[in-house]
């Protein structure tokens, strides 16, 4: 087990300046000639405004990063996204918009009378797009998990405009993990107000760009609505599963208390984190819908409690849905452990905190699609290659037990990526993940989901980001290609960060491109081929 007593990981949570123009990276090794395009990634880059700190990992202001690859040369660029949250903070030199875990105090320059009236405007929802970037038609959007997404220029990293999803489709927000099909169709999920005042979850579909070149956002539509286990308390949803015929939604016990959310925050200094609570009895409910018909399957899948942020992949096999997930056991919200004070603590304290947190485990669940009441009491899973079970109970629920595909004490396989273009929603073998050691990202891991074999890249005092798989243009096999990750290695001389290129077959180093600036934590992103 690797230790981090020097605390170099703290550099992941340090404010940096944006660049006025791209800088050249210093390459060691050989960049494959076929690797042409840009790695685009999002994360926080400003962790305080003047003397006012942000408190949570998901509060820092959005910084967009780009590594460009062209004929074996690499450049690095970064710009802050000009969101309302950022622009107003820069203008007023204070935190103006409440973020995930940081309350924005009212303007001290206003008198008590005008402050009183601003209480009744309701909450100004943040547009801090620090989580991911994704394509819609020919456009690229940076996003968080609210109703606001931000159109950006993927070449210059300039901010184009804020877009409010509420103006196009009936959702209160959408996840930062849409599914994008090979024709450009975008699917996403968000909380919404359903029938008779109760909460629900809408799956939205944005069609690909048509010949008329009209913005596909104008043609967004709701394709199916999933019911909510509690009419007043929707579950937190971060991602979902998609195959060619089915949509899988996992409803976890991490709940949003809407009464807290809608009551006037400003009267009691609340933020988003204050509105989460756990349902200690419901466990986890899984829902399935037919994608093309937009019809819910009337099957009640149940299992014991976990947190879920990232689906690895989902596929159909012989009347079953195979659902691979990065879970955290139990109902306590993992985000409670992601305050910056926790993450910046000394190594012994970081470990102490992580001991109390939910434990990570990568799991495979198998959902039978064809249910016969005659099979009550039996395990319905007949696939030869999995130990996962699904037992039909007398109350007509189906109780699921998983097959564990990766588990290590306080060692998470997280931020999973696959050969998405060719294998999303299909039977697959490999996934690439970021290894979290007591929440500290200190290795990159490749996992064979069939044999559970793993390959690891790790170096002392080095802190990588989510690995992005880029397929070789003439790939014959699923893992023909490279894996890209941004690594910081603060202790090792003048070059504190680099872009790492690994051979996806065995996770061996192909090349690295070093830069002379620190790069704070990034969450998600994509490779845009040239």
From TrEMBL:
Membrane topology according to the record: Lipid-anchor
E.C. code: 3.1.1.64, 5.3.3.22
Key word Metal-binding present: yes
Domain of life: Eukaryota
Predominant cellular place of this UniProt entry's protein: membrane
GO biological process: retinal metabolic process; visual perception; zeaxanthin biosynthetic process
Reaction it catalyzes: lutein = (3R,3'S)-zeaxanthin; all-trans-retinyl hexadecanoate + H2O = 11-cis-retinol + hexadecanoate + H(+); an all-trans-retinyl ester + H2O = 11-cis-retinol + a fatty acid + H(+)
Record-given protein name: Retinoid isomerohydrolase
Lineage: Eukaryota, Metazoa, Chordata, Craniata, Vertebrata
Name of the encoding gene: Rpe65
């Amino acid at each position: 087990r690797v230790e981090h007593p020097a605390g170099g990981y703290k550099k992941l949570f340090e404010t940096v300046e944006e660049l006025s123009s791209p800088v050249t990276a210093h390459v060691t090794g050989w960049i494959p000639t076929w690797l042409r395009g840009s790695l685009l990634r999002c994360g926080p880059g400003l962790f305080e405004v003047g003397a006012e700190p942000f408190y949570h990992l998901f509060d820092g202001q959005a910084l967009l990063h780009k590594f460009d690859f062209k004929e074996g040369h690499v450049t690095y660029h970064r710009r802050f996204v000009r969101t309302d949250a950022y622009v107003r903070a820069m203008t007023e030199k204070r935190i103006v918009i409440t973020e995930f875990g940081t309350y924005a105090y009212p303007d001290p320059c206003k008198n008590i009378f005008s402050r009183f009236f601003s209480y009744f405007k309701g909450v100004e929802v943040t547009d801090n797009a620090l989580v991911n970037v994704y394509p819609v038609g020919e456009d690229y959007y940076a996003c968080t998990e609210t109703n606001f997404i931000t159109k950006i220029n993927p070449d210059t990293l300039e901010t184009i405009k804020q877009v409010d999803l509420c103006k196009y489709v009936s959702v209160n927000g959408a996840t930062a993990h849409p599914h994008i099909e090979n024709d450009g169709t975008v699917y996403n999920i968000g909380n919404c107000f359903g029938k008779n005042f109760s909460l629900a979850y809408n799956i939205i579909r944005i069609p690909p760009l048509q010949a008329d070149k009209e913005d596909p956002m104008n043609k967004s539509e709701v394709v199916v609505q999933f019911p909510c286990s509690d009419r007043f308390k929707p579950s937190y949803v971060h991602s979902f599963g998609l195959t060619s015929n089915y949509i899988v939604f996992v409803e976890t016990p991490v709940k949003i208390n809407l009464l807290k959310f809608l009551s006037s925050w400003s009267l009691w200094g609340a933020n988003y984190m204050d509105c989460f609570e756990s349902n200690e009895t419901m466990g986890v409910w899984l829902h399935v819908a037919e994608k093309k018909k937009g019809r819910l399957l009337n099957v009640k899948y149940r299992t014991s409690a976990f947190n879920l942020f990232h689906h690895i992949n989902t596929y159909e096999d012989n009347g079953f849905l195979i659902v691979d997930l990065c879970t955290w056991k139990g109902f306590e919200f993992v985000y409670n452990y992601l305050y910056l004070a926790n993450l910046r603590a000394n190594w012994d304290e970081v470990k102490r905190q992580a001991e109390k947190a939910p434990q990570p485990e990568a799991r495979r669940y198998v959902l039978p699609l064809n249910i016969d009441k005659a099979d009550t009491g039996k395990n319905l899973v007949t696939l030869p290659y999995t130990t996962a079970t699904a037992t039909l109970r007398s109350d007509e629920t189906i109780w699921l037990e998983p097959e564990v595909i990766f588990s290590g004490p306080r060692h998470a396989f997280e931020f999973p990526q696959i050969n998405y273009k060719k294998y999303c929603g299909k039977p697959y073998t490999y996934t690439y993940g970021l290894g979290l050691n007591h929440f500290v990202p200190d290795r990159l891991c490749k996992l064979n989901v069939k044999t559970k074999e793993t390959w690891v890249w790790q170096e002392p005092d080095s802190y990588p980001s989510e690995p992005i798989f880029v397929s070789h243009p003439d790939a014959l096999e699923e893992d023909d290609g490279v894996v890209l990750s941004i690594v910081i290695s603060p202790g090792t001389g003048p070059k504190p960060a680099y872009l790492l290129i690994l051979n996806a077959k065995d996770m061996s180093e192909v090349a690295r491109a070093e830069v002379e600036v620190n790069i704070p934590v990034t969450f998600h992103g994509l490779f845009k081929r040239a």
